[in-house]
Every structure is written in C-alpha cells, then in structure tokens.
Amino acid sequence: MNDETHVFTTxxxxxxxxxxxxxxxxxxxxxxxxxxxxxxxVDPAWQKFLSLNASSPFDIxxxxxxxxxxxxAQLVGGGVxxxxxxxxxxxxxxxxxxxxxxxxxxxxxxxxxxEEALSNRTHAVVEEIGWFHSHEHHVATxxxxxxxxxxIHQIPHNRMHIIVxxxxxxxxxxxxxxxxxxxxxxxxxxxxxxxxxxxRLVKDKGYALLFRAFSLLLVEQxxxxxxxxxxxxxxxxxxxxxxxxxxxxxxLTAEQLALFYxxxxxxxxPTLCAQGLDHTLVEAMLSGTPVLATHFSxxxxxxxxxEDQLGYTFAPNVSSLLAAMRTAxxxxxxxxxxKGRACYERASLLFTATKMACAYERLFMCIRNTTYCMYD
Length: 376
Description:
The chain is built from 14 helices and 13 strands. The protein is α/β, with parallel strands linked by helices.
C-alpha cells in the first residue's frame, strides 16, 4: 500500500514530491501567503482539498489551529485532528499581565484597546467551547493547554492528546567549535556573562520589560552583556542605549541562530504572551543553554521540570525579572553550564522534531486502527 501525505501551506516553496521511503510520498500544495493582517483565504486550499478527496478520500485530516474552519471540519466528517498552539483562554492571562504592567508604569488611564480585548477574549472563549467540538481529535502542544481544553472547553479525555512542540535536533545542538567562531564574528566579550534573547523585539514579547530590568542590572553588574537576535521596534530602543554591554544582531538565519544559542551563557525569554510552548526555549535547551523564562504554566508545566535544575523563572514584572537575572549572574558560569547540560538531556529526550513526528504518526495510526493505541 502506498501512503501519501499532502501538505497545504502558504510557505513560499516550490511544489515538489519528496521520496521519504519506498511507497511513501510527500506532496506540497502552495497557496498565497496570509495578508498583512494575518487573514488567510482558505477557499483555494479547500477547493484543492475537495478535488483530491473526491478521487481518493483522505484517511486523516490534520489542521494547525483554525486553518481548517469548524464549518468545513464538519463537512469532512471523521478523522479530523487539530493542533492548538494557543487558545483564547490563555490570552486572557496575557491581557491581564499587560494591564498590570501599565499600572506598574503609572499609567492609570484606561487603555481602550486593552479593555476591548479583555471583553472580546471572554466572548471568544465561549465561542470556542461551542465550535471546538466540530473537530474529532484535539492536540495540545503543552500540558497546561491540554488541561484547559479538558476542563474549560470540555473536550472528552479520549479525544484529547498532548504532543509537545519539538525542533530539529540536528540543527540545534551543542556546538563548541561554532561557539568560538560566532563570538569572534560578532564581537562578543570573552569576559563577563552573556545573556541572550531572540525573537520579535516587540512589547508583547516582553522587550520593554527586559529593557527596564537590564538597565537596572547594568548598574549592579557592569560586566554583563545582553545580546539580542531579532528585529522590531525595541531593537532600536536598545541600540539607543549606546552601550557596549548591549549588542543587537538583527535577524539571523536558522544556522546562525543555532550558533547564537551556543555562544550565550543563559537564554532570556521575557514574553508576556501566555500561549503555547515557545520554540526558542526548546532551541536553547537543545543547544545546551539554560533558560530564564516567564513563569507561565504552559512553560513551567512542560519544559522546566525540575525548574531549579534547568534555569530560572520570573513573574512578568521588573523587580522579579531583575531578581532572576541577578541570581543567574551570581550563580556564575559553572552553575549555568551544569544547568545547560541538564537542559540538553531533558530536551533531547522529550522535545525533538523526531520525537514529535513519531508521536503524531502513532496518533494517526491509532485513529485508523485502535490496536496502535495500546502500549506495552
């Protein structure tokens, strides 16, 4: 029997057929990318799907979040699996965090957009609870999201699955030789600890929070350096410090990013978004780098167990982030390297792309034949 996998995507790639192994083929169907507002015209992909499904019905249909709308999922029938990388219930916490930070900044006047977001988010949760049941099987990418889907969205336990995010372990791995080359290329200091952060340098990712906390840390620890990989409005704010202790690298390729993780002493993720399981944390851990992250349940319940052996967490406010960075600096390189090794051991066991792919394969086989649902 020939197994086929069809991928409907908006990535700018050439439609090709890649041979995985004998009798197994992968087909890409490429469609226009989303608009600047993030909206995706699903109709062209849906028409292509209907055409293929009519000639040879698909056994399993897998959707990333709401890429396959609930109305169309109902038309497909059984065998629909959807992976949730974030749900509306989690974003309520993100809105609350930002509202509290505004108060901490002395901004007591109501933020109309934020107030509307909080109200709309509550309605979105109620709406989600209604249409989530249109999908037969649900995959949560963190333990906390899985718990919320069962308790808040009332998804039956036998239709709820947890498959955590994984990243390419061949690319993101300890690379001691590359560490030296990368440090020399970008002028990273040899003395003093180096903190690193990566991603979109925007406010909701916590870079305003990091800016304030690191500015205070520099007063106490003038030998510490912060290296930022990524672009965004807050990149310019960090550059305006005109400090040799702050290096903004801009956007990096995946290969460069892998070396970046190897070069820093601790990876800082100051996100204010309490959704899903951030890939950057997994990439850093697989590279053997300890992490310093916001204490959100989606992070600590899945990644940082036990927390004290893998890194540091902080509440999303200036004093807590400053205290966590201060602790990491005082611990020093020996402790950080020990935690980095522990991060690598945990991530290589649980959070690799290979592990994730095997878990999805087992789930799809289980849906088709319950024999595969039984484990020794």
